[in-house]
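Supplementary Note 3. Input sequence used for the single-chain structure prediction.
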Amino acid sequence: MRPASSTSLTFTLVATLAAGAGCDPHETTATDEVDAGERGPGGKADAQQVPGSCIKGDKLLCGGQGHGGCWCDELCASYGDCCADFAPVCEPEPEPEPEPEPLCKPEILEVTELVISDDTVWDHCEVHLMREKTIVDGALTIMPGVHVFGQNAATPSSLLIRGSLTAHGTEDQPIVFQPGEERASWGGLRTGAYTDHVSLEYVELVEPETGIKVSGGSVTARHVVMRGYGNGTGLSVSPTRPEVSVELDDVLIRDFGTGIWGWRIGHVHGAGSRVTVRNAIIEDNARGVFLGTDYEYCGNPEVKKPRGYLTIEHSNIVDNGLAFGVGYDERWTKYQIERSNLLDNGDIALIQPYEVPAASWIRDSNIVGNEGGLEAWGKISTASFPYNHWGELSKADILARSSGSCSSAPLEDRFSFGELRTEPVADAGPQPEQPWAAICELAGSC
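The predicted structure, written as C-alpha cells, is reproduced below.
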C-alpha cells in the first residue's frame, strides 16, 4: 500500500460542500485502495484530473487516497491521478489579505490660519488648505495616509515651511499633496531662509506649480513621486543662505516643464550648498535637469570658483526634450552625473557658461538613443564626457551631431570624451532597478 503523505495539511471546507458531498457521479467501481506501485509517474505535463472524489460522506480525504481510486495528496499532480475535485477541495483559494487599517482619522480638517506657530500634527485623512499660503513656524508632522488638498482656486495654495516638516507615509499608505476642486489650486512645498528641515518619505506630489521650491534649510526626500501636468518645475533650488542641503533618493520626477532646476547653487548667498540625487527617474519633461537661465550670453563675465555642487548618481534621465543643460550664469556650480542612463532624449547637453567649473562631467554612463547631440555656447573651457557608452556612435559621429557658438575653437577642442566604452555600463541607473517611486507610478496610484 502507498503510505499517506508525511506532509501535514489543514483544510477548511464550507458546511454546504461537506453536507452535499457524496460519491462523484462519475465514480468508478475501482476499490478505494490502490497499490502505490501501480502508479507510474507521468510528470506534471501529464497531470490530469480523474474520476473520483476527495470527499467521502462528511470526511475529507486530503493528504491521502481519495474515494474511487484517485489521489488527494501533494504528489498527485506529478503522477497524473488527482481526483476530479482535488483543486477546489484540497487547494482552496487563499483568503484575500485584509485592507490595512487607515492610520489617519476619516475626517476633514480645514486649515484657515495664515501662520501655524505651535507644534502640530495633521492626522485627518483630508486636510484642506484654504488660503493662498500657509506658513509653518513650528514643527508640523503629517501622518501616513493623509491627503493634503490645495483649495484656493484664485492663487494656488502653498505650504511654506519656516520651522520643520516631517511627512513620513508608508509604502501602503503614502501621504499625498494634490490640487483640490480646481486643477491649478496646488502650489507646492516651499522652504525659506529660516527653514530648519523638511523630511519626506513615501509621498506623492501631484500636479503642483512647483513640487518643492528650496531656498534654505535641509530637505531629504526618499520614495517620492513628483508628477506635473506639462508646466512648472519638480524640484527648484535657489539658495538664499549658505550650506543649503537637498538629498533625493528613489524619486520619480515626470511631466514638468523642468524636472530639476537650480540657480546659482554655489553663489555667494548659497556658498557650500549641495544637491544630491540618487536612484532617480527623471522622464517626460521638457527639460530634465537645467542649471541657470536660458539667456544666451557670449561675453566675459567674472569667473568665480565653484562653491556649490550638484551630483546625480545611478539615475535615469530619459524621454526628455533636453537631458541636461547649464545656463550662462551658472559658473558657480560644479556638476557631476555618474553611473546614469541618458536615453531617448532630444539634445543631450547644453553648456552655456563662460567657463565650465573644474571637475564637472557626465561620465561612466550610457548615452544612447538621443535625437540631438551636444551644444556648446559661450567661451567655455573643455566640457568633459569621459568613459561613457554611446551605443554605436564614434567620437566623430558625436561631434558631427554637436554644435557650438560664441567661439571659433573647433568642437573637438571643446569636448573631452576619454575612452568610449564598447559595452554598456552594467550598474548604471537606479539601484534597485524597480524603486518604489517607479512601481507606485506604474500602478496608477500609490
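The helical segments are 15-19, 76-79, 86-90, 395-400, 436-442. The chain has a mean pLDDT of 84.
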